[in-house]
C-alpha cells in the first residue's frame, strides 16, 4: 500500500508545540504563581506565529548534511548506511538473517566496492520502497527526531550565548538543562530510528526479491 510522499515533513506544528511545552514547563517549575497569575500560557500560545519562521528555517533550509553531521560526527559520510553492507557482513550490526538475506541482495545488486558506494546502493534500494507505508512512516519518524535534535541544539546554544552576555538566571539555566537532556535523548532516538529505517529497507528488498524469484521459478514450465 503506497502513500503520498509530499507530506512527509508536515510536522512543523508538532515541533512548535514541543518548544512551547518546554518554555511553559520551564516557567511553571521556576515560578508557578507568576506563571498562573500573568496568564503565561495564553501569552505563549499567542507567540506561535513567531515560532513558525525559525522552525521552518531549521527543518527546510538548513542542509540535511549538516543535520546528519550532528548525528554521526565520526562518520565520513555522516550517514548510518555508510558502510552498511560491510558491517552486516562482518556481523558488526545485529539483524535478523531470516528477514534480511544479504546473499540475495548482493546477488541481485552486486558488491559495492567502497563504503560510499554501499550508502549509494542502500539509497537506491530505499527509492524502490519509499512509498511503502511502513518505510514512509519510519522515515517520517526519523526525520522528526532528527529535526528536533537540530532545533533543540540550536536553542540550547542560543540560551548559552544569552547567559554569557546577560548572566545566568533561573529560567535560562533551566532551559539549558532541559535542552541538554532533550538533545541527548533525541540524539540517541534519532540514531535508533535511522537504524530501524535502514534495516527495514533491506528487509523490504529481501521480501521483494524472494517474491520475484518465486514468481520466476513457478513460471518456468516443467518439461
Structural class: mainly alpha
**Which band does the percent of strand residues land in?**
under 5%
Helix content: over 70%
Number of strands: 0
Structure description:
It contains 10 helices and no strands. The protein has a domain at 63-218. Helix 1 (12-30) runs antiparallel to helix 3, helix 1 (12-30) packs across helix 4 (48-61) and helix 8 packs across helix 10 (170-219). The chain is elongated. By secondary structure, it is mainly α. The protein has helices at 12-30, 32-37, 40-46, 48-61, 64-71, 84-89, 102-109, 115-129, 133-166, 170-219. The two termini are 37 Å apart.
Summarize the entry for a quick read.
The protein is 75% helix and 0% strand. With 223 residues, the chain is mostly helical.
Task: Lay out the secondary structure.
Layout: H1 12-30, H2 32-37, H3 40-46, H4 48-61, H5 64-71, H6 84-89, H7 102-109, H8 115-129, H9 133-166, H10 170-219
Helix pairs in contact: 1-3, 1-4, 1-10, 5-9, 7-10, 8-10, 9-10
Protein traits:
about 220 residues; mainly alpha
